[in-house]
Structures are given as C-alpha cells and as structure tokens.
Request: fold
Amino acid sequence: MQIYLDYSATTPPRPEVIAVMGSAMTHGWGNPSSLHSWGSQAATVMETARMQVAELVGAPGDAIAFTASGTEANNLAIMGVAQQYRKPRHIIISAVEHSAITQPAKRLEQQGWHITQLPVDHHGQVNPTDLAAALCEDTVLVSVIYGQSEVGTLQPIAELAAVIQARRHQGLSVPIFHSDAVQVAGRLPIDVEQLGVDLLSISSHKLYGPQGAGALYVKPGTDLVPLIRGGGQENNLRSGTQAVPTIAGFGLAAQLASQELLQENQRLLKLRNRLIEQVQSHPELVLTGHPQERLPHHVSFYLPNADGERVTGKALVRQLNMAGIGISAGSACHSGTLTPSPILKAMGFSDAAAKTGIRLTLGHQTTEADVDWAAMVLRQLVERVMVNQLVTVGLH
Reply:
C-alpha cells in the first residue's frame, strides 16, 4: 500500500490540468507578446489563466503578476519594496516565516536594513498587539505568513491589516502589507479586499497545478521594483517570455480549486480531525500548531520524550517511507538537515524537541482508510523506537 501524505510539499497535477497544458503546447505555443495571430492565441490562453487565478483570491485580473514559483513571488514582494529606497529602512516579518521570506530579509539586514521578527505564542500565532508595538515611522513593509507550512497555524491576517490601517487614521505612515498564502490558496476562501493585504503570494503546485508557476497579487497603486528586467512583461514586474502552458495549467487548477473549495474543505477537515484523534491517542505524539485555527488538511506532531538525536523527525520520515507512507519532517525545504526546526524553536520548543517534528498533510486522493492505516503504522513505529530509544541504530 502506497499512501502519499505530503500535499503541503507538492500536489499531483490534475488530469484536466495536464490536458490543458498539452493543448497549450500544441495550439498556444506562440509568444504572447507578438502581434500576429499565433501570439494573440497564446495571449488569450494566458489572460484566461490570469482571470482564473485572480478569481481564486478575489482580485481583478490586472492585479495578478505571474512568476515561476511562490518563492519568486515572495522575493518580488520583499525586494520589490526594498529596492525603492536608497537608504535602509525597517521591515517587520513574523518569527515563523518560510525561508522564501527570511532569506531575502536576512540579505537586507546584511545591507543595513532593520528587520524585526514578531514573536509567536506556543501555537505559532502572532499577537496583533505586538505588531502595533513594532510599527514605526520608518517601517515600509510588513510580511506575515497566512498559513504556516510546518505546523499549520493560521495567522489573523485581517486583524493585522487593521492594525496597519489604523495608522492612516492617526496621520502616520502606512507600510505595505504582504502575506505568503501559498499553503492557503485553494484550501480556504481568500478575498484580498477583505483581508486588507497589498501583496499576496500563491503557488500553482500546491493546488494541483504544475510546478514552475506562481503569482503575486499586487494591489492597484502598489509600487514594486522588478527583480528581473528585460522585455517588461507582467506589467513591467517580471520580464521574460511567459511559460504559457504552465500558466494555463495554473489557471485551470485555480478555477477547479475555487469551484470545489467548500466541499473539499469540509471533507479534509473531517479527515484531518480523524487523523489527529487517532494519532494523539499515543502518549508520545503531541500536536503542534494551533488546535483549531489551522490549515484544513494539515496535521503536525512532535515527540516530547525523544532525545532528538537517536529519534528524529527525519528518521520517522525514512521509516514510514519504508512502510509506503510519504510524510515530511517539518517543512520540506528543511527535511535534509538535522538542525532544530527554526519554526518550533520560535514557538518555544527545545532544540531536542525541535528535531522531532513531523507533518502529515492530506489531499484529493486521501481516504479514511489511508488515514486509519497511516495512524496505526505511525503509532506502532513510535512505540518501537521509543522503547528502544537508547539502542536504536540508524535513526539519527
């Protein structure tokens, strides 16, 4: 039995998506910037996809800029704001951001920028009061992740946006507000107007589209400096001939996700809660992240009594893979290292505990039988490795 439970890392492209990409490669292969009929056909395919992606997040079509990934969208948001200033300013991020945010921020810090990391509670949530206290006249950007990929916690984005906008009524400077919504798009309803964000990043391969496509919502009137210069495509935000087939697949995936969102959301919530209940029945597995305000498909645990060396999240991933079950050790981007998870550390976990985190994420192909089997295998595996913790070999 093969059970894939790593949908937060990537999702399999839907058959309909593969079909529309094939059609675009066959009939829409022209350069969308060209004025002849071949170019016009490609441009039509691309603009259809732009509207499909825009509708997923409640945005106008001309507010969507296509990128090659969610990571690029995040980098465009951070650096696109920062590069407008000749002198270093102040940026606020949360302590539980994806590396696609923390790494650009670190780069700016090396260049003299002041970077504030907002603390989080033990569930991984930011307190809006802390944001209010951190804002200053020099703050030009705030970036807070919407749904945390490693522990599943949802942030109060609308409340944070309200804190920022309150400065306008006080006659103070109002920074640009960005949110990384890569894990949320296609899984929860998003309306950028209601959220109050100026910039929002999403990714195709997290919602059953192809890898190699992302998008950044840019609120009209928000200025950004492009990372890539050249032909001025994507409203001068991302030069380079667009990958029309990939974008077409992204667009259809977004449309299908929007159409099925409410029904799939409820199905995943039931499966998620079923998995949490079954796994938590083992005393050695404790839930991480917020128990209620979390992504509907996301389950994450840690082992409080493991030594963090002989028994690690990475080791559990390997053992479960041998049993035909695919999960992740925390964030997939960090699964190749034994350093403590910076996310769990920010939430107050010890170094040892922060090495034991695992993540199981559900998707279209997940069934109750999959959840029940995975929970049973995980419980048995943890029982065995904990009993033999001091003598286990090869689990570090």
